[in-house]
Amino acid sequence: xxxxxxxxxxxxxxxxxxxxxxxxxxxxxxxxxxxxxxxxxxxxxxxxxxxxxxxxxxxxxxxxxxxxxxxxx
Length: 73
Prior knowledge:
Layout: E1 3-11, H1 16-27, E2 32-38, E3 43-49, H2 55-64, E4 68-71
Antiparallel strand pairs: 1-3, 1-4, 2-3
C-alpha cells in the first residue's frame, strides 16, 4: 500500500453541491481513502493508494462530471 496525499485546483465549482458532486465521484473510485473539496477556494485534497488508482484517473473522474482539475505543485 502506497498511500499519498495530493492537492488539486478544481475549477468550475459554483456552490457546495458542486463540491459534493466532486467528492462523491472521486470517493467512489477504488483506492481513494478520503477526498475533500472546497468550492470557495477550488482546493480538492485527496488521499489515495497509488497501487490501486492513479492521480490521472482521479482528475479524469472530475472532468467526467464537468469540472477541471490540475495538480498543485
